[in-house]
Write a structure and sequence with these properties.
Rossmann fold, 414 residues, 12 helices, 5-stranded parallel sheet, 2 domains, alpha/beta
Length: 414
């Protein structure tokens, strides 16, 4: 039996994958709505259709009681690791789950942390908490770190086909973890320590963060120089070596990119090092919504319209196309800034029925465009006729570059 702590976008797919591999799974979550949904074989994670969950429903059981994990061969911890208001790591959910797990931990079990965190967390935080059980890590039970690599909405790379990185506390710990994940992953890449695995996950996302920040900064400069940044990127991307395409946008959102770099920069300060490159990238990306609002205001001014009397329609409010996740979505900041300037804000997003934080509900397309002074493509969801949008509004600000090829004078690209 496999135990999973946290039945979110990481834990539920893992539960289904192990069940499909023939394993019995107990999934634990403190949210009774998730427990009820899993028991009813109703998925709330976009990457897992309810039909797929139902197909293995007899093998997946949900609970809110840690005692139900006592008989598990392995327990995978997939709890959130957010940031505090001061952009410092919040390990509260991890500490709580580890302490509760220690009360039911038994000899021979394997515990794997999947939650993204800073190097040293597994050894310095998780292990001492688990050892409150009176058992010794590496001797009485095994511990490893294996970072989640979930990209919501993606179908070309899945849990099965994406290589899994694993770092064990000891050689034997690593052996157990590799054998576990080989049941659901085609390729497992082993590293020597949990710290190496923890750092690998941060490197993956910091690499993207830094390169997105670079192209975002160039987009701001290109705007001032009246150069089409999309034409520049298309040209540079023709080089068959030494260049990797990244595209500008309104800012970063989701569960990883806006958070992970701060985990490493915070940890680095304990080693008397300021990671200026990483922190600068974070600063640039956090400023992009402000630049986008400035561009919107300028577009309204050019059309002879004050932002304080304008109706602005946001097209897409989730953090990426094809999903309904609004965590850290730049659309939320853009909406708030526009409202602060007096604009009337509406939105359409078939994946996000409502934004409770802004007291807004998605309006149907194309009705949402009626009376709009300006529309903004914040998230380029599939299925939208962008040419129709361009014809329907006086001004269209495209923050995603999806209107390339549309010659309408109303279109302004980032």
């Amino acid at each position: 039996m496999i135990g999973i702590v946290g039945l979110g976008y990481v834990g539920l797919p893992l539960a289904v994958a192990f069940a499909e591999a023939g394993e019995d799974v107990v999934g634990l979550d403190l949210d009774p709505r998730k427990v009820e949904a899993v028991q009813a074989q109703r998925s709330y994670v976009e990457d897992i259709p309810s039909e797929r969950l139902a197909a293995v429903g007899e093998r997946v059981r949900a609970t809110s009681h840690y005692r139900d994990l006592a008989e598990a061969e392995a327990v995978l911890i997939c709890v959130p690791t957010p940031l505090t208001a001061n952009r410092e790591p919040d390990l509260g959910p991890l500490v709580d789950s580890a302490r509760r797990l220690s009360s039911v931990l038994r000899k021979g079990q394997l515990v794997v942390l999947e939650s993204t965190t800073y190097p040293g967390t597994t050894r310095e935080q998780l292990v001492p908490l688990l050892e409150e059980s009176g058992l010794a890590a590496g001797r009485d039970f095994n511990v490893a770190f294996s970072p989640e690599r979930v990209d919501p909405g993606r179908t070309d790379y899945t849990l099965r086909t994406t290589p899994k990185v694993v770092g064990g506390l000891t050689q034997a710990c690593g052996d157990r973890a590799v054998a576990l994940y080989e049941r659901v992953c085609d390729h497992v890449r082993r590293v020597r320590t949990p710290e190496a695995a923890e750092m690998a996950k941060l490197l993956e996302n910091i690499f993207r963060s830094v390169n997105i920040a670079l192209v975002n900064e160039l987009a701001i400069l290109a705007d001032r120089m009246r150069i089409d940044i999309w034409e520049v990127i298309d040209a540079a991307a023709t080089k068959p070596y030494g260049f990797m395409r990244f595209e500008p946008g309104p800012g970063m959102g989701g569960h990883c990119l806006p958070v992970d770099p701060f985990y490493l920069s915070w940890r680095a300060r304990e080693f008397d090092l300021t990671t200026e490159f990483i922190e600068l990238a974070g600063k640039v990306n956090q400023q992009m919504p402000y630049h986008c609002v400035e561009r919107i205001v300028r577009a309204l001014n050019d059309a002879g319209k004050a932002v304080s009397t304008a109706r602005v329609v946001l097209l897409g409010v989730s953090y990426k196309a094809g999903v309904g996740d609004v965590r850290e979505s730049p659309a939320l900041k853009i909406a708030s800034l526009l409202r602060d300037l007096g604009a009337t804000v509406a939105y359409h997003d078939e994946f996000v029925p409502e934004l409770t934080s802004h007291d807004l509900r998605s309006e149907p397309f194309p009705d949402v465009l009626d009376g709009a002074d300006l529309a903004v493509i914040v998230t380029a969801h599939p299925g939208i006729d962008w040419e129709r949008v361009a014809r329907s509004v006086p001004t269209l600000v495209d923050l995603r570059g999806v209107t390339r090829g549309i010659g309408a004078e109303s279109v302004i690209r980032l």
